[in-house]
Design brief:
mainly alpha
Length: 140
């Protein structure tokens, strides 16, 4: 067999295929910050992929939307694929029909399924200036 044979396997992203059998203590505490009905599914999603665990900490509203099964199944599946491929948060938010300013809200803000929210550019600029810069300054 020739020694210069190339492998046909595509290089894989270790973050995409890595499953977390258990969450570290910090991520476990973070998962308990979500509303009780969504916690189990949030934990499952966070364990399924390191990128989904990252999404939970960076954009809690998006992981909550996935956990509470907001929107059609194929839309959620495409959003999950985008996250695992490392797509921009803006693309994921657009697909899940979530305004990007939701990133600034902590997990405690999501107590029930997310309804339609204003997503206009003017509203986004105004609301972003009124949200606390740090969770320490929020009422949660």
């Amino acid at each position: 067999m020739p020694q210069n044979v190339k492998s046909l396997k595509q290089p894989t992203d270790p973050r995409r295929t890595q499953e977390l059998s258990q969450l570290c203590d910090e991520l476990e505490r973070f998962a308990t910050s979500f509303a009780y009905p969504a916690q189990r599914e949030v934990r499952r999603l966070m364990r399924s992929s390191a990128r989904l665990a990252d999404l939970a900490t960076v954009f809690p509203g998006a992981i909550h939307a996935l956990a509470t099964k907001r929107g059609p199944v194929d839309m959620r599946a495409r959003a999950t694929t985008l996250v695992e491929e490392g797509a921009a948060l803006k693309s994921v938010a657009r697909l899940l029909e979530l305004p990007l300013w939701l990133r600034r809200l902590p997990p405690e803000a999501f107590q029930k399924q997310i309804e339609d929210l204003p997503s206009g550019e003017l509203f986004a600029r105004r609301i972003a200036n009124r949200l606390p810069a740090s969770p320490a300054y929020s009422a949660f």
